[in-house]
Structures are given as structure tokens and as C-alpha cells.
Write a structure and sequence with these properties.
heterodimer; A: mainly beta; four-stranded antiparallel beta sheet; three-stranded antiparallel beta sheet; 7 strands; 0% helix; elongated; B: alpha+beta; five-stranded antiparallel beta sheet; 32% helix; 22% strand; globular
């Protein structure tokens, strides 16, 4: 059964198995069930790339964009914690 | 799907009529309520239940309260037993450790009898102005246990055999700072329940108990059957989301949605332990927010009833933020962890919808909500009052869809009162209330724009009023992008102390520019604060997240946003890759195509 995963990302099945592929260039990222995000080209940018009002996130978050490694189509964007930020700490920990 | 022996036309007519009763209950609350929270902001719910407490017809607002009020009905049944419940009794319950979510949301519940038999229940909640908590209004950032958060009523007869229990009524209202306003709100709930009773009894008189009981049962069976079939259409799988709320501690909420056959399992394992402050959610609230997400995301066109709840299972480990252990505080739960759970549930549900060609057009970028504040103090007429500032939840920008932009200041369930009304009632002057430029999450379809506002004291006899800051504190408290779309700008609540606003007004200059207003900025976490003469409170609420790649956005839509002041020319250039020329913002098509190509090329060059 074929079904979408993102705007330009699809799970599909053929005679060789089930896969995840880019619908723009048909590049196969990985077998279905694996984490397709690991197969993407990953860009990390300052949060202000998403707009000037994101400046409060500087130093705390980064804008992560995931692209097709073959044709550069954008699959996903998300704010992720900055690796250099000390991070969260629950007082009970 | 419709398998009953009931005539389908009769079924539809009666089903709609039952839902119409919940609307009429809501209108009654709006017209007879004692506070702006009820009459203009519509912070209420009104629903009908079956004799055993199952949801018969859910009202239009607040799905989470629909579930919790049903639980409240079952608590009343358990506490009193059918033998002690008279046809003309009316009950009151607000205990978060039984069925409510926090004490200000007071459930008023009426049994509905026909010819001596219990045939249904009606239930309402309104958010009353005060509950005698340590902080006026109820949201208490300093509270560390439930006992600090006001009166807790486990179920009591407010009206017994048709007669208001004046001793009980006075005792409850006098434990609050605003007995008259709270009393009026309780009475508007009684009125709405009376309307429900009268309308339901009229239906039973007209159609008879056999048919109506069969219809309500069939409504639930029908909704459950259709929803289970819809769920079954998606591939089995798991979807995850997290959200961070920043209190004095940083708390993470985690949710995994597992879709197994025709059931949805919302598993909050991995969520942090409960917080010291009252951002913890009772477990029934967690279930209620998941129900709300499914109701509005996948079951919006079905009869809204218990059938939507049956395919859902919620796993919420005890002692965490989503299942508070007694006597943990909860007063700020609805607008923090509650909206957080609503966001998580919507997010994972939207990811699931994205796996279906049939359903992916229904996707809406989820919103993790906003900050808000409540004020209290003496107003220009010398009277004490506690009130929510402007119901900012009603001014959020909603998330983008797969085929259209989010709604600007589309809001949530609530409405927003007009500025003049607020200024008439309270010692405030609003400096501006407008859409915040460049706040919406970019995307092929952008998120809805949220609102920014600023207000200061005006004609306040004491020269100050109190404030309490609540909501979803942190930097993730706005619309999240989906499928490549960018997030909306984070909500903000900033107290500007000792500003130039009064001088600007004296000089007949409109204080609409933050730089000119000046002052010492203080970002407010969960806290109590004072708004003093000369201070300005600036608030920016959540904007919606975008859908899809911003570089794929229709150029003409970008141009229109620039002309409307929603997007700046710089953002049009930097985020959307659109080159505009001249005062009329004409598009340079060739330059735009080249810019878009080079922006993507530049991004990929630095990517791995």
C-alpha cells in the first residue's frame, strides 16, 4: 500500500519491499520502518531564518531543515535545541 | 453505518435537536452570565448526558470539559445514589481530584426526569471570577498544593427539591472575593440547566421515551462506528511529539500516538514528573484534551458524543504533569499543560492524517498556545474585581492547512470582548491591539497572524493593580510548522516599567511604537506582578505555524501580505524569496525566480 508521509515524501511498496521515497525525484531514502530523517540532508540555521521575531530563540534553539539528499526538496522544518545550550534540568533529577 | 430500525430522517432531526439544546444552553449562559468571561469571552461549556453519564450531545466549546463534566455526573451518581437524587435537585462540583480541571471551572449539573424516570443529565461549566485562592482569580503561581488554590467542592446540592439552598449558596460565594459576580455566574448555570430540562422534557413528551432513548443510543453507536472505520483506514503506526514548558523548572511533555487497527492509544510515558507549581493536569483533563483533539480533527462532522471517546485509550503515568498526584497544585493547568496536551494530541493526530491521501487535506498545523494574564484590584468606580485580560486565546493565529493560510487572529473556542468594553469596566487604557507583523509561521501556506497588544493603568484609584502571568511559558508556545512550514513567533508577555507612554499622550502622540514607549522590560514567567502607574504591559499571543516550503508560496499571496502589513518586505525577500519593487510592491518575476533558486542552493551548500 502506498501512502504519503509528508508533502513530498511517500511510503511505497514494490516487488522488492516497502520503501520511503521522495515524490519529486523518486529517490529512495530508506526501507519503510527505518527513520527516514537519518537519510535526509540536514541543514541547521539560526532561528531568525524563520523570521525576525524568532530572535528570542537565539542561542537556545536552531532551525533544522530536512531535504531530499538527491534533489533538495524540503521535507520538514523544526526548531531543535541548540547543542551548545546547557539544556533542561528538572529539579527532582 | 446507520444500522438502526429508526427512520433515518427522524434520527437526524432528533439528533440535531438534542445538539441544538446545547446551543440554547450556551446562549442562556451568554445572556444571563455575571462576568465578561461568560458573556463575551464564552469561557463555558454546556452539554447533555445519558442517565449513566455517557456523553449524549456535546456542546460546541471545550471538548475537554465535555469529558470532565460527564465524569462529574458519574461522581454525583456515585455520591448520592439514584434514590437521593430528586427531579428538581441541582448539583455543584469543582474538585479537580474528582472531575474538574481546576477550581474556577464550576460544574453545575441537573438530572432530567420524565414521568418519574431519570432520562438524561445536563451539565454546564463557567469559569468564575474567583474561588478564594491565594491569588485573586484562582490561577496561583505561588501555590504548591491544592489547598492554596481555593474552595474545592466534591459535589453538593445547590438546589434541593427545587429550592435554592441559600445557606450553601452564601457560604460558597462568600468564600470568594467577588460574591456577587460568582453568584450571578452560578445562577446563569442554573438557568441554562433549566432550559435544558425544559427542552429535553418537551422532546420526551412529543416523541416518547422509547424513541428518544433509542436515538441517543444510536447516535453514540453511529459516531463510534464511523470513527472506528476512519481510524482503520490509516496504516498502523506510531507518531511522536514533545513540548517544553518553562516554569521555575523546565518540564517536558511527551506523547506517542499508537494507531492499532480501529483504536488510538495516546501514551504520555516519558513525560516529566509533576511540577512544584500548579501547571499539573488531572488525568481526566488529559483524557479530555485528547478527546477534544480527535473530536475537532477526525470527528468534526459526526454527532458529538460518547462514541468519539470509545476508540480512545489514554496512558498517563501517575505523578507526572499529565496525571497529578494528590495534593499537587493544578490551578494553572488548563492554560499550560492542558493546552500543551491539546497541542501534542493534535500534532500526532495531524501526522497520522498525513499518511492518508483522503485525509491529508484536513491537516492543520497545530498550535501550542500562548501566554495570558489576569488582573485584579479596585476599578474606577471603587469596586474590587478580578478579570482576565482580553481573553488573548481568542486572538491566536490558527495553523495553516494543506490548501489555505491559517486564520489571522482566528482564536480558539473563545471570543474576545471589545477594547472599549474592557476600558469601561476596568481601570485600563489600551494603547494598541493589532496583528503582529512577521509573526506568522512561513510556509507554502502561512500560519494565521497572532495579535499584539499593550495596555496601561487609567483612572485606577490605588495607582496600581495586581497581575498574574500564566499560560504556556517558554519558547515553544506558539504555532508549530508542519511538513516544512516554519513555526510562528513565540508568545511574549513583557512588563515595561516606568515608560514614556503618559508623556507621549500628553504630547498628543499616539503611544503605538514600543521603542518610543520605552521603559525597563521585564519578561514575565509564571508569577504575580504589579501594574503600576506609568507601566505598560505588552503581550504578543501565539501565531500559527506554516504548512509546506515557504519558497513554494504563491508570489501574489506574498505580495498581498506585504500590502496588508502582515509581512515586511525584508521577510518577503528573506523567507519567501520574493522581490518586490516600488510603492505598489510590484513583483519582479525573473529576480524572484533567481532569488528562490539561490536561497535554496545556499541552504543546501551548508547542509550535510
Amino acid at each position: 500500500m502506498n501512502y504519503p508521509l509528508r508533502e513530498h515524501l511517500q511510503a511505497y511498496t514494490d516487488s522488492t519491499g516497502s520503501w520511503i521515497r521522495c515524490t519529486k525525484c523518486l529517490h529512495v531514502l530508506c526501507p519503510l520502518g527505518e527513520d527516514w530523517k537519518r537519510s535526509c540532508k540536514k541543514g541547521l540555521f539560526p532561528p531568525t531564518k524563520a523570521g525576525p521575531l524568532m530572535s528570542v530563540l537565539l542561542g537556545r534553539y536552531l532551525l533544522q531543515k530536512l531535504y531530499c539528499p538527491s534533489c533538495g526538496t524540503l521535507f520538514d522544518s523544526a526548531m531543535v535545541e541548540h547543542p551548545d545550550h546547557p539544556g533542561r534540568k528538572h529539579p527532582n533529577e | 453505518m446507520f444500522s438502526s430500525s429508526i427512520d433515518p430522517v427522524t434520527f437526524v432531526v432528533l439528533s440535531h435537536r438534542l445538539h441544538q439544546i446545547t446551543r440554547e444552553m450556551g446562549i442562556t449562559l451568554e445572556r444571563t452570565g455575571g462576568t465578561v468571561t461568560t458573556t463575551q469571552q464564552h469561557d463555558y461549556n454546556a452539554s447533555l448526558y445519558r442517565p449513566n453519564g455517557e456523553i449524549m450531545a456535546a456542546g460546541e466549546t471545550y471538548g475537554h470539559h465535555v469529558v470532565c463534566a460527564g465524569l462529574a455526573v458519574r461522581c454525583i451518581l456515585e455520591r448520592f445514589g439514584r434514590d437521593e437524587i430528586d427531579a428538581d435537585d441541582v448539583f455543584l462540583l469543582n474538585d479537580p481530584y474528582l472531575a474538574a480541571i481546576h477550581q474556577p471551572d464550576m460544574y453545575v449539573i441537573s438530572p432530567i426526569h420524565f414521568k418519574g424516570a431519570l432520562v438524561a443529565w445536563s451539565a454546564t461549566f463557567v469559569h468564575v471570577n474567583d474561588v478564594g485562592a491565594m491569588t485573586p482569580g484562582g490561577d496561583s503561581p505561588e501555590a504548591t498544593e491544592i489547598f492554596h488554590e481555593g474552595i474545592r467542592i466534591p459535589g453538593i446540592k445547590l438546589i434541593e427539591r427545587g429550592k435554592l439552598r441559600r445557606d450553601v449558596f452564601d457560604t460558597i460565594t462568600r468564600m470568594t472575593r467577588q460574591p456577587e459576580a460568582v453568584g450571578l455566574d452560578l445562577k446563569c448555570e442554573i438557568a441554562a440547566n433549566n432550559v435544558a430540562k425544559s427542552r429535553v422534557q418537551a422532546m420526551y413528551e412529543q416523541y416518547g421515551p422509547e424513541l428518544l432513548d433509542a436515538v441517543s443510543e444510536e447516535m453514540i453507536r453511529y459516531s463510534e462506528a464511523v470513527l472506528r472505520k476512519r481510524i482503520q483506514e490509516f496504516p498502523d503506526g506510531e507518531w511522536r511529539e514533545t513540548l517544553t514548558i518553562e516554569s521555575e523548572e523546565v518540564c517536558r511533555l511527551a506523547l506517542t500516538l499508537r494507531k492499532e487497527s480501529d483504536a488510538l492509544i495516546f501514551d504520555f510515558t516519558g513525560t516529566d514528573r509533576q511540577a512544584r507549581r500548579g501547571i499539573n493536569l488531572p488525568v481526566h483533563g488529559t483524557t479530555g484534551f485528547c478527546f477534544g483533539a480527535v473530536l475537532y480533527g477526525l470527528a468534526y462532522d459526526l454527532p458529538k458524543n460518547h462514541g468519539v471517546l470509545r476508540p480512545l485509550k489514554v496512558i498517563a503515568p501517575e505523578g507526572t504533569i499529565v496525571n497529578v498526584r494528590y495534593p499537587g497544585p493544578v490551578s494553572m493547568s488548563t492554560t499550560s499543560s492542558g493546552f500543551g496536551v491539546g497541542f501534542l494530541a493534535s500534532s500526532v493526530l495531524m501526522q497520522m492524517l498525513g499518511t492518508s491521501e483522503k485525509w491529508k487535506n484536513e491537516i492543520v498545523a497545530p498550535n501550542a498556545s500562548h501566554r495570558n494574564c489576569r488582573h485584579s484590584g479596585v476599578n474606577q468606580y471603587g469596586r474590587y474585581s478580578a478579570f482576565i485580560n482580553m481573553a488573548h486565546g481568542a486572538l491566536d493565529g490558527s495553523g495553516a492547512r494543506s490548501d489555505k493560510d491559517g486564520v489571522d487572529s482566528g482564536g480558539s473556542y473563545m471570543s474576545v470582548p471589545n477594547v472599549e468594553w474592557m476600558e469601561l469596566q476596568y481601570p485600563l487604557l489600551y494603547l494598541f491591539r493589532r496583528h503582529a507583523q512577521d509573526s506568522a509561521g512561513g510556509g507554502k501556506f502561512r500560519g494565521g497572524v497572532g495579535v499584539e497588544s499593550a495596555h496601561m493603568l487609567h483612572d485606577a484609584p490605588e495607582g496600581k493593580i495586581r497581575g498574574v502571568a500564566y499560560g504556556v511559558a517558554g519558547l515553544e508556545n506558539s504555532g508549530h510548522g508542519i511538513f516544512g512550514g516554519y513555526p510562528g513567533a513565540p508568545s511574549a508577555m513583557v512588563l515595561l516599567e516606568e515608560t514614556h507612554a503618559e508623556q507621549l499622550i500628553s504630547a498628543q502622540r499616539a503611544p503605538v511604537d514600543l521603542a518610543a514607549i520605552g521603559g525597563r522590560p521585564r519578561t514575565l514567567p509564571y508569577c504575580n506582578f504589579e501594574l503600576k502607574k506609568g507601566d505598560v504591559l505588552y503581550m504578543q499571543v501565539a501565531s500559527g505555524g506554516g504548512y509546506g516550503d515557504p519558497l513554494e508560496r504563491d508570489i501574489e499571496l506574498v505580495r498581498r501580505d506585504v500590502l496588508n502589513g502582515i509581512v515586511s518586505r525584508k521577510t518577503a525577500h528573506d523567507i519567501y524569496g520574493v522581490v518586490l519593487m516600488g510603492e505598489r510592491a510590484q513583483v519582479d518575476l525573473a529576480a524572484t525566480q533567481e532569488l528562490r533558486r539561490s536561497l535554496r542552493e545556499e541552504e543546501l551548500k551548508g547542509s550535510q
